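Need a sequence for this fold. Nothing fancy.
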């Protein structure tokens, strides 16, 4: 599978997890003993610069933060709850149903589901609606691989995803924080876009339960709640499906959820964000910095509706 320079960085160029842990220890020590001058000197340890100007200050978020600071309400509403409550979550065996308006519906075991696709590493900026962000090296494959295999009918305009519903294994589902099971959806062109992937891992490791194991959706130009986790069903529809947060609070969470610094959440500004591991806030980029690749899909639409 050919990689496009704007959507992936080779795994060989991803900073090893151990280097990041050492870097964080160094920064903590430097801050303690040398103040601002020591932190300024640490600039030589920064992630290699590449890509557009909007990407130049990006470096992957440390593995420790990526796997301990999560939104996954199926395991609790606190950011630390998923890592604590998902420790014993078993992901084998796992079945994914692909159905709806497709020519070849099927039930797949996870290993069969992945086998025809080539896994690759992609480093994506990820932006949460609560105004915090991460940069994550994902392992995965394009969602379009699955959809092409299923042969969507011409009447199929939307793709719906469903999370496992099992309160015995997912203790957060015992409480009505949301209407379970969690459901998300994309327009067909969004689902077929090469930036949209199904992830099975991060940081060259198998995906952990708190990050959505064994299979989660990644759409880097949208807010994080669109990235549905622990997927058990992919269904093609002819009409726009109602999604979890859109149903829960339509005044705050819409279907598209494209990152837009000019459209504030009713309770806070989206004009800036705090990258996890950083102190200073940074400006939020339209479409999370992927406007050149995806903005054309929304030509003619009022940007204020893309929340």
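Here you go.
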């Amino acid at each position: 599978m050919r990689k496009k320079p704007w959507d992936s960085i080779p795994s060989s160029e991803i900073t090893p997890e151990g280097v990041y842990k050492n870097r964080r220890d160094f920064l903590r020590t430097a801050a303690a003993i040398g103040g601002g001058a020591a932190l300024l000197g640490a600039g030589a340890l920064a992630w290699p610069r590449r890509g557009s100007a909007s990407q130049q200050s990006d470096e992957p978020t440390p593995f420790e933060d990526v796997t301990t600071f999560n939104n996954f309400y199926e395991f609790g509403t606190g950011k630390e709850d998923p890592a604590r409550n998902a420790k014993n979550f078993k992901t084998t065996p796992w079945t994914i149903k692909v159905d709806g308006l497709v020519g070849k519906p099927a039930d797949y075991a996870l290993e069969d589901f992945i086998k025809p696709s080539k896994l690759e590493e992609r480093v994506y900026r990820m932006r949460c609606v609560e105004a915090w962000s991460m940069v994550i090296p994902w392992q995965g494959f394009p969602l379009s691989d699955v959809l092409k295999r299923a042969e969507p009918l011409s009447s199929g305009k939307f793709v719906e995803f469903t999370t496992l519903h099992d309160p015995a294994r997912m203790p957060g589902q015992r409480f009505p924080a949301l209407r379970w099971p969690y459901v998300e959806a994309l327009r067909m062109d969004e689902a077929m876009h090469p930036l949209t992937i199904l992830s099975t891992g991060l940081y060259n490791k198998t995906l952990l339960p708190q990050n959505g194991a064994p299979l989660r959706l990644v759409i880097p130009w949208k807010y994080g709640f669109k990235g549905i986790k622990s997927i058990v069903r992919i269904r093609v529809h002819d009409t726009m499906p109602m999604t979890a947060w859109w149903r829960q609070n339509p005044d705050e969470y819409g279907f598209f959820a494209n990152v837009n610094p000019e459209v504030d959440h009713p309770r806070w500004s989206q004009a800036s964000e705090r990258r996890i591991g950083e102190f200073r806030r940074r400006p939020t980029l339209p479409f999370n910095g992927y406007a050149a690749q995806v903005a054309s899909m929304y030509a003619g639409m009022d940007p204020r509706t893309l929340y």
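For context: The longest helix spans residues 17-41.
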